[in-house]
Amino acid sequence: MKKIILLAVAAAGMAAFALPASAMAEGVPLHMLPKPEGTKTIDGVGSATLTGFGTTITCTKSSGTATFTTTTGGRAQRVFSECVNGSGKKCTSSGQVSGVIKSNFLNFDLLTVEDTVTKATVPES
Question: What is the pTM of this model?
Answer without folding.
Answer: 0.62
